[in-house]
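Closing statement on the adenosine-5'-diphosphate sub-project.
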Amino acid sequence: MPLSEFSLIQRFFTKQQITNPSTRLGIGDDCALLSIPEGFELAITTDTMVENVHFFADADPELLGHKLLAVNLSDLAAMGAKPVSVTLALTLPKVDENWLAAFASGFLTLAERYSVDLIGGDTTSGPLTLTVQALGLVPKGRALLRSSANPGDFIYMTGALGDAGLGLKIKQGYNCEHPQAALTRFNRPEPQVEAGLALSGIATACIDLSDGLAGDLGHILQQSRVGACLDWDALPLSTAVQAYINDTGDWVMPLTAGDDYELCFTVSPEQAKHLTIPATKIGIIESQAGLRLCKSSVIQPLEVKSFEHFS
Ligand code: ADP
Ligand code: MG
């Protein structure tokens, strides 16, 4: 007999001990209860992943559990918030116990790494759809917004650019000599939680790279009413991504491909000296609107758009 909704929740999602001091009440009642320490604000984000839109039908459930949580923790990181707890809404076409066990393992292993409590959720039947709401704490007034970049600020990013995009190309049939690192970056993104926390009070604006650098940085530019120039030669491209560009001529890919989940942020030149995290300076904020790329000593407008649903 298939598991009932309640025993499914019991079996797969209530194993975890409550570990975060902000959690007053976890799974089991009509609501969870959180306490917010004096001097902090609650940062809240939601991300949904839909089968055949965000992941392939044959996706490894453990990696999916990891990625679903990772993309939500990445949003908290981009605000400079410390993750505290999450809720999980699952819509499942059927109860597949092996699938659920692997999914829960991927999800809860990452949660435990950051002392994030799973405090509730919902379980329904329907086309496979996975939704997380993540809650984090940020000192009052210290959240890293998209709207406060200033002309003259340096633009930085953590990690490397385009490896997840290369991973997707490999999944779609591109023949890469050393595919493993790129595939891992696509399948198993790591949220830049520590980097986000270290940027609080230093960065003027921040965003996580989920939809592609050009589009995501574009959000900072629009909301801050500024422009920017990126330096092609400074972009942190792995040897695999460089080989892909040499091979295909497709140099736009790293600028537009999503799923890297690195942080892109802006810092004033004075504050840049106080950066304590590894990051690469990739450009500069300018007062002239629009995004430009300086490549081979030529400055060209970058009008590339990132992935959008409904368009
Ligand atoms: P209600 O009918 O009040 O919404 P449910 O029967 O849906 O309650 O859920 C019972 C408890 O289990 C609640 O505390 C809810 O937050 C939690 N829960 C339900 N589904 C999940 C899930 N997928 N993951 C974690 N907690 C869940
Ligand atoms: Mg419910």
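The chain has ten helices and 13 strands. With this model delivered, the sub-project is considered complete and its resources will be redirected to Aim 3.
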